[in-house]
Amino acid sequence: MQENEATEKVIIGVDPGTQIMGYGVISVKGQQISLVQYGVIHLSKYSSHELKLKKIFERITQLIEDYLPDEMAIEDPFYGKNPQSMLKLGRAQGVAMAAALARNIPIVEYSPKKVKQSVTGSGNASKEQVAYMLEKILQMELSKEFMDATDGIAIAICHQYHANTPAALSSSSSKKAKKGGWGAFVSENPGRVK
């Protein structure tokens, strides 16, 4: 019984946003991935950015208390044309990360392209394609009303796929690492680099 419990891992995936923040919680036992919970945090109803940040911190903290994740995977903010939007998105990500750090939960960041590529095989996949592949991976139907939550699930699954690569295992001392950089590529593909 003890051995079986040791192999279970809970991962929370977070897709930061300033209007809607998606999340997904998965459980991994051996190679079996199962969905524990997913949903969205609606933030557009709050009048100020500060209130949105407070709500993000409270909801992520509550999710952590409810599901006791072992690790957090979070999407890097993508670089858009509007620096103000980028700053607000970065703050939202930081507050979600602070909730995990307050509970000593290791965090790994992934680029949106890396997440899509891990789940669908294409870094340019649409939200619908990601949702379709998640239904195949999890062998269940996902609610279309929570399309933003599927990104959270995808981030958690991406983390699981990359957590057991040779690059991840060799750098496990650095828990808050960025995946998908040149160093990770070289470590994962030594035969492809000359």
UniProtKB/TrEMBL annotation:
Annotated compartments: Cytoplasm
Reaction(s) this enzyme catalyzes, per UniProt: Endonucleolytic cleavage at a junction such as a reciprocal single-stranded crossover between two homologous DNA duplexes (Holliday junction)
Keyword DNA-binding: yes
Name of the protein in question: Crossover junction endodeoxyribonuclease RuvC
Enzyme class: hydrolase
GO molecular function, a single term: hydrolase activity
Organism: Dyadobacter arcticus
Binding-site residues for Mg(2+) 1, renumbered to this chain: D15, D148
Cofactor(s) this protein cannot do without: Mg(2+)
